[in-house]
Specification:
The protein is α+β, with helices and mostly antiparallel strands. The chain has six helices and seven strands. It has a seven-stranded mixed β-sheet, sandwiched between helices.
């Protein structure tokens, strides 16, 4: 199994994006209760991501789908200092209107994730320790444990390296998430999507746990035993009815 995914001509486009305008302010008029609640939830998620150790300091970023675009954490601001008004609305074409903060430098790959996955409602990007170790080794996470299926497939891929904040990286992320809910980014970190912010953050935690287990397994020097395609197919089928997803 290749340790990183190779970009192909058939890959999904990253979506229409362009550099944000200087200043931002989404639109005229007062925010709705829904929007204010989502802005606060983005902050709450970013704080939990940082406090749980998934992303130290000001690293990482969080967004959720909203309207024709997304709400995303601003660039370079301490999460503890954030107010609802600091969260940035970026439209689907990458535009940011006057009066807002500067969005996270990684806004492009957040938009590309939403473009690639219509079912994604939230994105969490972290520099969690063990996931980043594997990313820096350009290693995908194979099916060494059945819980790898939590990300939606038989492995958790590692997409190729590209400079942070670029359209090239956004394209790689779109490919990595086309049929997975999480992936590693070479020499960078991890990204997870979910049906809501809680789900995306929970998956990011799961990816970090699996990464730590895999790193420690590699450290033993023993042969890594990877579950076969049939075994993982059965796990993936069982996951469809896992927990409260199906009853009766």
């Amino acid at each position: 199994m290749a340790d990183t995914m190779k970009r192909t001509k058939k890959s999904k486009p990253a979506g229409a994006v362009r550099p944000p305008q200087k200043a931002g302010g989404r639109r005229k008029g007062r925010r709705t209760t829904e929007e204010t609640g989502l802005r606060r939830k983005v902050i709450e998620t970013a704080l939990e991501m940082s406090r749980s150790g998934l992303s130290p300091g000001r690293s990482g970023n969080v967004s959720c789908r909203f309207g024709d675009g997304m709400l995303i954490t601003p660039s370079g601001m301490a999460y503890e200092s954030l107010k609802a008004g600091d969260i940035v609305f970026v439209s689907g074409d990458g535009a940011v209107t006057a009066g807002q903060r500067k969005p996270s430098s990684e806004w492009r790959f957040h938009l590309s994730a939403y473009a690639a996955r219509a079912d994604a409602e939230a994105v969490v990007h972290t520099h969690s320790l063990h996931a980043t170790v594997l990313a820096c080794a350009n290693r995908a996470i194979p099916a060494f444990h059945y819980m790898v299926a939590i990300a939606g497939g038989t492995d958790i891929p590692c997409v190729p390296y590209a400079t942070f904040g670029t359209e090239e990286l956004a394209g790689f992320v779109a490919e990595g998430l086309a049929d997975r809910d999480a992936c590693l980014m070479a020499n960078h970190g991890q990204i997870a999507i979910g049906g809501d912010l809680d789900g995306a953050l929970e998956l990011a935690r799961e990816v970090e746990v699996l990464s730590e287990q895999y790193v420690k397994l590699l450290a033993t020097g023993d042969k890594v035993i990877v579950l076969g395609a049939d075994d993982m197919a059965e796990v993936l089928e069982r996951f469809k009815g896992y927990g409260q997803r199906a009853q009766g």
